[in-house]
Amino acid sequence: MTARSTVTTGLAALAMTLAMTVTGQAADMALRGSLPVHDDLAPNWTGFYGGVQGGIGSMTADTQAMARREAERLLNGLYFLNPPSGAAAPTFINVDPVRGTPVMFGVFAGYQAQFEDAVIGFEFDYNRIASGGGGARTWTQPFAVLYAQTGFTDAFSQSTTVRASLTDYFTARMRAGWAYGRVMPYFTAGLAIARGNTSVSYRAGYQRIDTDTADAVDWTMPYSDLVNSTRSSNGVIGFGFALGTGVEALITNNIFVRAEYQFLRIPSMGGVPVTLHAVRAGVGIKY
Description:
Blueprint: H1 2-34, H2 38-41, E1 47-61, H3 64-74, E2 98-100, E3 103-115, E4 118-131, E5 134-140, E6 145-149, E7 152-178, E8 183-210, E9 220-250, E10 255-269, E11 272-286
Antiparallel strand pairs: 1-2, 1-3, 1-11, 3-4, 4-7, 5-7, 6-7, 7-8, 8-9, 9-10, 10-11
């Protein structure tokens, strides 16, 4: 009886142990199944995307070279362009850059692929300047330049007005970012095409003063214009490059917002170098 009781007691203890083990494993599996899994929740940045954006910028158009070229063109063949001594008249022209604060809006679209945390892709964007894309500068020679010739001296004066404005631009850029969950900082670099309008007005003339002591007559010819011209070019195209950096954040798995800085350099837009610094914000959809 003692041995049978011992066996019975041992079997009962073993059965209880097995039951507790199975119950514990089941509870552990249930608990594991209820916990979030990081890989399942991490967003995937791969795919096509597109959106809209808007911002404000600071634009500079260097119109100095355009003003001097126009003066050289209009004074071609005249004494004041190639004097035997002294400086040519266009070298005195000193026009300040045209500056603007453009307000812009546009669209963007691209594709990117995620490799672990690295995200590589390409993007196109088009931006329209709504206001503040340019302006005008006027320069008037503060003194008359004296050009001495045989028997007389010409007191030469000149003035110019230049205008430049950016109307829209397009970029095609490569993009590289690093994903930190739902936030991704990135850099961009690529090509840019800009379109705008330019205009230059140039006026020059002289007053002739008698310097011949042998003619026994002193005379002065009133001021008269040599040239007075305005030339405009609308819709001129310039090619350059664009650089930028920004950050995107996924609001949902498909909707994101972004903030971006962009630098644009166009070496010649109708003969006018243009530089643009822009800050923009946008919202987009990832497919």
